[in-house]
Queue: 3 jobs
Job 1
Amino acid sequence: MEKSKLIELLQTFSATDFRRFRDFVASPYYNKNEDLISFLSYLEQYAPEFPKDKIQKEAVFQALFPKEPFDKMQMAHLMNYLLRLGEQFLAIERYQNEETLANCHTLDQFVERKLDKHYNYLFKKTQQSLEKTGVSDGEDYYYQYQLARVESDHFISQQVRAFDPSLQKASEELDKFYFFHKLKYSCEMLNRQAIIAADYHLTFMEEVKSYLLDREKVDPLIDIYLMIYLSISKPEEEQHFEKLMKLIDQQAEQLNRKTRREIYLYALNYCAPKIRQGRKEYISIMLDLYIDGIQTRSLFDEEHLSHWTYTNVVKLALRLQRYEWGENFIREYADSLPSKLAEDAKHFNLAELYFHKKDYDQVLTHLNQLHFSDLHYHLGTRIILLKTYYEQDAEEPLLSLLASFSIYLRRNKKISVTAKKTCLNFCNLLTQILRRNPSKWEKIGQDIRQTQPLAERAWLNQVWQREAKFVESRR
């Protein structure tokens, strides 16, 4: 029973969920089988762990029906019915959180039952609510369309032979709903195609793009996603990204956090390849996007800041040599990270910062405080340590660590293929540089520029150039 769909569902329930689900199951409108109430009560006492010995079917049946022999079929029915109630409960919980949609469905009933007073009051209330909140995400387009549709249906039910403005409005709101979601899905398809070998077909996008670009005024959220689409599909035409940045600055506060997060991520993803192409001005643009997204909590995952986002901000600050600002950021936002990663993330990034400041004693101090809560820090620490040994001319510990780290990478099966290649390529190229073989020097430089994937490419290139004088003397 521990692997059943019912238990898997209940394991996702919070204490509040259980309380509300208990009330739901006890409601005779949804359930008249009192055995299901007892069944849920029994399971709830063992949530969320649900120990195997307590939820074996025979043990549960015995607790529910102590005077009856075990009935496999009856137990299966109880599990199936409770699962169905659980699924129904989730749907109703979601529905109750969508007040506008529920109001529209109620208005449909008022129209059908010809309850005009009820209709007029609720319609006005719902309309005012939508106008007050505006469009904060794509779902609001759906609500606006639904309300316009209801208004048109109500007009038709009056059987009045006159111009119906609500019919035009319903059509326009449906267009907005379509355009937004068409752009949203198309942006995501382009985004995935850039990451994986995916073959998506973006139908009607030329027509949608042409139509919207010809309009004098486009709804702001639709305009944002149009600029995202154009930025992704035509990254060389940078005026689209420039307009996107202006729209983000003007409209971000009106959008909900989930939508803002998605928009910021698209903008950040546009900057990354530009930086790899050598466009240094995008380093500042990307850092400013991160700062805005963090300060507005748009880039937070629920209540926490991702340690990847945290580290990316530090890397950008270091590339701009904003050391004091970077250190303040590291210390200020460490508490915003998930608790199990916070200390390691702080010390790892402080080690990176002090490496850039050439304060190698501080680098070692912070590396020694890591507990390796994540494999990323385990691997990253060794790369920083290798770089530090090189900068300190500590050749013996450098060569020793290079050898042991390479063996560790080859033998460890828990490291992903990409991470393993990234670090091994770094070790191999650093080893070749340290051999200082004149006959292979040009080839090493070419490999540093072309090898994929590769950690610390810029640093390796600097080291290769620094060693060039010594190599030249041996020619």
Job 2
Amino acid sequence: MKESTIAKALPVGLAIIGVVLLYVWLSADAAIDLTERLPIAHDIPQAPSDANGVEMRGEFVRFDGVPSDLPGAWPRFRGANLDAISSDENVTLARTWPASGPNVLWSIDVGEGYAGAAVLEGRVYVLDYDREKQADVIRCLSLADGKEIWRYSYPVKIKRNHGMSRTVPAVTDKYIVTMGPKCHVTCLDSVTGQFNWVLDLVKDFKAKVPPWYAGQCPLIEGDKVIIASGGDSLMIAVDAATGEVIWQSPNPKRWVMTHSSVVPIEFAGRRMYVYCASGGVVGISAEDGSILWEITEWKIRIANVPTPVVAGDGLIFLSGGYNAGSMMLKLSEDGDTISAQPAFRLEPEVFGSPQHTPIFYDDYIYGVGANGQLNCLDPDGKVVWTSTSVHKFGLGPYIIANGLIYVMNDSGLLTLAEATPNGYVQLAQAKVLEGPESWGPMAVASGRLILRDMNRMICIDVTEEVN
């Protein structure tokens, strides 16, 4: 009798247990799926994590910093127009500096790396890394005094490898988008810091983290975020509001991500995104992600770092280190087909920029070559002038503002020169950072120049003093 009762009850009990387990399993999965894009409650750590153990929503902390009322902007890598040229013509910049150098307005400690700043509406945005907490940190500071306004962080383990963070955020009046060292793309509200969404490119798109970690800076265009992911898709466009994928480019050759960033270009009535992938250069339709053209004559075996430079109608200037030299591509149209061909190529001893992207300014190309000297090239690739061997800059960054070029050397020596094809004309020099490796991309807004070395970020006043 007892055996018969047990035999009848056993299946029922197992069924109940199964239903309970199924409910728990479904509930757990649903919670993970939903939490990635839910708003974050302020000051409360969030627990859900992805397959790599990264907390998808992280931790938000508010501070007492206040945005500046200064109007200038440098909202992304290489500035508003992606050309490393300041468009702020309402500020007069000094052509000489006192013996002590420009006035340092503020200075902050940063985690090891080369991540530069973006500036918008009196706020400075930096992607940092906290080694003690083992976390990527998105920091919002006041342009006026460097005081922190808020920060958002999420845990991710990173080993020292020539620094850690090295990308510049993209910022609009609604969003800030960052790419972390291990290819986590995060979107927050640029004013409040509220969490919007995150993508793990390795997990979601089978991307491969580049050597020395991610160096690609994200691009926001209108309501889209553009990322060259590699892996399953060569490039993706996602909705800036939700993180949902809008289109994905095919990647039949399985090209992988480099340190180069994406640049938009208009040609023959079409808008496209140009990118130096691991196996060549591509032009991808901004409308639907289709590949409009590709060329394999340009690829760098170890690391492609500089971004393509738009150098006139249908002209794209490429440069790199590791014996790559440089190349000018020329686009052409034949019916509905666009193709790219090399217009000229320069050997590395003539010109090749190993780390930073050259600048196309008033029909000339300015850049620091493999020999560490500043060069000026004409559009045909002829070297117009080169700074002397005494004036070397290593792998430091450079920008142009008000016809002046600011160029940094490895150890924190900042040089001011004229951006002119008439010759190398140096105007001022000052030691502004201790180094080492003062390689972070520069940003300038309202006459405030933001610089960094491996461990420190500073803001200096480069405006002309009014008596």
Job 3
Amino acid sequence: MIQKKIQTYGYLIKELSIREIYSKYRGSLLGIFWAVLTPIGMLLVFSFVFGEIFRAKWPGSEFAGKVDFALNLYIGLSVFWFFADVLGRAPGLIVSVPNFVKKVVFPLEILPVVSVVSGLFHLCINLILITLALLITKGTLSLSVLVLPLVVLVTLPLLVGMGLFLGALGVYARDISAVIGVVLNMLMFLSPVFYPLSAIPQNLQWLFELNPVTLIIESCRGAFMYGVYPEWEKLGIYLICSLLVWLLGYKVFNATRGGFADVI
């Protein structure tokens, strides 16, 4: 019974994920190519503003000027976009599918998983672009990039848990979407996207390390740019916290789902 349930949910997740990815670009002239062009366009804008206008330099870089800043920036943005994409859509996951809530028997708890899979698709595209850029500019890659799947893996329970929690909350408090949008905008500048963690004053670094995006950005950037392996102890703690968030989100979702149909 459990095996059949897993197989059924797995098929549903796959089909819904494919549908969600294609629905984003259906009807557009360039289609799925927007998944590549959009981040590149944002990267060029940020690189121009910070590289040309503000003349920003990346501390401790072995690359020269603009190339270094662009690559470091791109890595930070790619990870942040992954988090922002999943969390930004989370409050509307349930309210956007009223038919699934009212008219059919549907496992609503898989919707955050579908959202995470969709976000992973776009993250993988960005990581491939980063890999190609590094091969072109540096000519080689460090073996440390092989551990990046593990770095991304520890974030998945956290994002699914937050998706469950925010999805349930969004049913009862519709303005939570606006709140999350504001929080994500602030979080982008309070994460090491435009700067390394080492640029933060020593006495404040612990505060920035509480940000769930920080460790992932720093680990990905270190593996790609400097051949540095992640801090395994911190990743282990991150995984434990991530699993706890997933468990809490699941419990909140199950405790509140009984009233979804009445509110929607």
